[in-house]
């Protein structure tokens, strides 16, 4: 219906938002300033113990600093009470003592029709409940008892039974004055296309009422008792009351449980939800016979900022998780996250609870993985990355996925997480050395350790490497800027390799901490600018760090060029000449790179990488030419 100008503003002005919100929260009076209309409470939309939910009467808005829920009084009634917009307006008008504007005849007719449909559904619920207690419902009672559902559970979920009668419910409704057309419109009866008599939609099925966020029955789900039935589960059609893509089974009780601190757990079906609730996991909901929709996802996030998706432990459950990843990625962000709990193979929540009890299910929920981990698993499981092209394909798939995330901060964190995972995947030798070091176990020397001249013959290079590690540890904000170069550092020392891994991962292990202590124990490292003065700006430290990377990369490149020249001269020159070429090039490197200590730090003059390549190559080629003549 259309509302006159200024009507909503008048409602908001007459009713302080704290009066509406205060019915659902407990104010923190120590933090609140009642005289100024400034109120604080634990958030009713997500589980927390601190008062991060702020209500401002002067502005008429609420905001949660935890889950970022926000809105006005109408928005609160819609989110917290599950009201439609017009129902929220009517509730606020009643609170303000203002009459609602007159509705048009069409609007009144639609409202009256919906009220009639709700009455039809309530009547059907009572009839189905009664049928479960009759002789015809004996088989259904036995089945439910075998699934562990006691009388209290049947009453809590209003579970009933539809006997295998063509017009059992229709006759009951007709006796109560409900016309056939209204039963069809409510979705409990079907009218044949040939114009024949209507018949019951649900026959020979256990009945599960489906309720909206306000607790009103809006449809039914039926489980067939006949194992040969074409559909094991059957839901009612979409009606003026029921949109299956916008509702969740057990929504209202789950929302109340989440407000008291329970997690929101999303299972696949009615029996899974019932099993979870019976196990004490009361914040359980389920989609209604279809894959989770975007509307259902947004509805979940209005209840909890991080629902746990509990999927069956089979291939179908995993495929459902992967489809949900693609749906959720563009929507994910602060206050809109997902975690995935994958059950043991071949088990659903009902199976697991019956086999292992509530503790087994809680253990699975406690191990739920964030969406990023499942996305990484999807892109890497069962695949080999033994070529540049395959690695590039992984990079592209991950980059495309991250690009779909609309929230900039979340996108940045996803990219950083995937870089860390990629580094660990593509550097198994470094990771293995790090694991040995963390366990304190001896390990055989890696090939690069045996072949390297870094420690044995080039202590200057080891010092530069130490300064790089110290600068990264002292200025962690720089790690992201030199991530690729830090990956290529590849220290031969296992402790330093573990330290590189920890710096890139952003978390320090015992092995990494021990290696850092050893690095910092060197007086030359401690005296290097940026390390000796950790308060120095990141920009100044970055210049020193880049200089150090240039130095070590130039040294290693020159050493590789020397080795290449020696190989090319093999057979053309004697060992003495080869030795002199090597010593000449190394002496030039030492002259170009003074000590790292003192004021010079890592900022001294140096030749460019290209110059060092050219110099080593030119000397080798000149000697080779003279030898040939």
Automatic annotation (TrEMBL):
Monomer. Interacts with DnaB. InterPro entries: DNA_primase_core_N_sf, DNA_primase_DnaB-bd, DNA_primase_DnaG, DNA_primase_Znf_CHC2, DnaG_bac, DNAG_N, DnaG_primase, TOPRIM_DnaG_bac. It is an enzyme of class 2 (transferase). Its cofactor is Zn(2+). The keyword Nucleotidyltransferase applies. This is DNA primase. One of its GO terms (cellular component) is cytoplasm. Residues 584-609 are annotated as: Disordered. Residues 262-344 form the Toprim domain. NCBIfam families: dnaG. Binds 1 zinc ion per monomer. Its EC number is 2.7.7.101. Transmembrane segments: none annotated. One of its GO terms (molecular function) is zinc ion binding. It catalyses: ssDNA + n NTP = ssDNA/pppN(pN)n-1 hybrid + (n-1) diphosphate. Belongs to the DnaG primase family. A zinc finger (CHC2-type) spans 43-67. The gene is dnaG. One of its GO terms (biological process) is DNA replication, synthesis of primer.
């Amino acid at each position: 219906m259309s509302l006159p100008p200024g009507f909503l503003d008048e409602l908001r002005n007459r009713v302080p938002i704290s009066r509406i919100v205060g019915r659902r929260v407990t104010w923190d009076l120590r933090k609140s300033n009642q005289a100024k209309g400034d109120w604080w409470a634990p958030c009713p939309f997500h589980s927390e113990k601190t008062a991060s939910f702020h209500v401002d009467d002067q502005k008429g808005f609420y905001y949660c600093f935890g889950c970022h829920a926000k809105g006005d009084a109408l928005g609160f009634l819609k989110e917290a009470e599950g009201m439609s917009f017009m129902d929220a307006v009517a509730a606020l008008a009643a609170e303000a003592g203002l009459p609602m504007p007159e509705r048009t005849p069409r609007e009144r007719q639609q409202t009256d029709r919906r009220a009639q449909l709700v009455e039809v559904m309530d009547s059907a619920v009572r009839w189905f409940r009664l049928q479960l207690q009759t002789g015809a419902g004996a088989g259904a009672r036995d089945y439910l008892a075998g699934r562990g559902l006691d009388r209290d559970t049947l009453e809590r979920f209003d579970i009933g039974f539809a006997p295998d009668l063509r017009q059992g419910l229709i006759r009951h409704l007709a006796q109560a004055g409900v016309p056939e057309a209204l039963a069809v419109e409510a979705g409990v009866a079907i009218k044949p296309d040939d114009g024949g008599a209507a018949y019951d939609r649900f026959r020979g099925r256990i009945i599960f009422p489906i309720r909206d966020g306000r607790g009103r029955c809006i449809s039914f789900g039926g489980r067939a008792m006949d194992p040969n039935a074409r559909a094991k589960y059957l839901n009612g059609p979409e009606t003026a009351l029921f949109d299956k893509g916008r509702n969740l089974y057990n929504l209202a009780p789950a929302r109340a449980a989440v407000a008291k601190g329970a997690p929101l757990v999303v299972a696949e079906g009615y029996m899974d939800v019932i099993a979870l609730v019976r196990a004490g996991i009361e914040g359980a909901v389920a989609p209604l016979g279809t894959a989770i929709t975007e509307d259902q996802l947004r509805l979940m996030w209005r209840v909890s900022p991080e629902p746990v998706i509990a999927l069956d432990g089979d291939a179908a459950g995993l495929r459902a998780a992967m489809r949900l990843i693609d749906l959720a990625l563009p929507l994910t962000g602060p206050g809109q996250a997902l975690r995935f709990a994958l059950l043991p193979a071949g088990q659903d929540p009902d199976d697991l609870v019956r086999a292992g009890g509530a503790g087994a299910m809680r253990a699975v929920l406690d191990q739920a993985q964030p969406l990023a981990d499942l996305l990484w698993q999807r892109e890497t499981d069962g695949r080999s990355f033994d070529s540049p092209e395959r690695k590039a394909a992984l990079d592209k798939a991950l980059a495309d996925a991250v690009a779909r995330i609309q929230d900039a901060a979340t996108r940045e964190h996803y990219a950083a997480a995937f870089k860390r995972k990629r580094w660990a995947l593509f550097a198994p030798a470094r990771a293995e050395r790090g694991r040995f070091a963390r366990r304190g176990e001896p390990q055989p020397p890696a090939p690069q350790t045996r072949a390297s001249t870094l420690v044995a013959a080039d202590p200057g290079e080891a010092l530069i490497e130490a300064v790089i590690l110290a600068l990264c540890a002292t200025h962690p904000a720089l790690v992201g800027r030199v991530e690729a170069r830090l990956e290529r550092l590849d220290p031969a020392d296992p402790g330093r390799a573990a330290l590189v891994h920890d710096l890139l991962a952003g978390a320090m292990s015992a092995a990494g901490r021990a290696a850092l202590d050893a690095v910092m124990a060197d007086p030359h490292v401690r005296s290097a600018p940026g390390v000796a003065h950790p308060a120095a700006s990141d920009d100044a430290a970055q210049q020193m760090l880049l200089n150090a990377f240039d130095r070590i990369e130039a040294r290693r490149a020159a050493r590789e060029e020397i080795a290449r020249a020696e190989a090319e001269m093999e057979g053309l020159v004697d060992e003495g000449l080869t030795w002199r070429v090597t010593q000449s090039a190394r002496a030039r490197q030492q002259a170009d790179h003074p000590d790292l200590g003192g004021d010079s730090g890592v900022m001294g003059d140096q030749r460019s990488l290209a110059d060092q390549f050219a110099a080593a190559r030119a000397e080798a080629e000149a000697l080779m030419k003279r030898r040939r003549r």
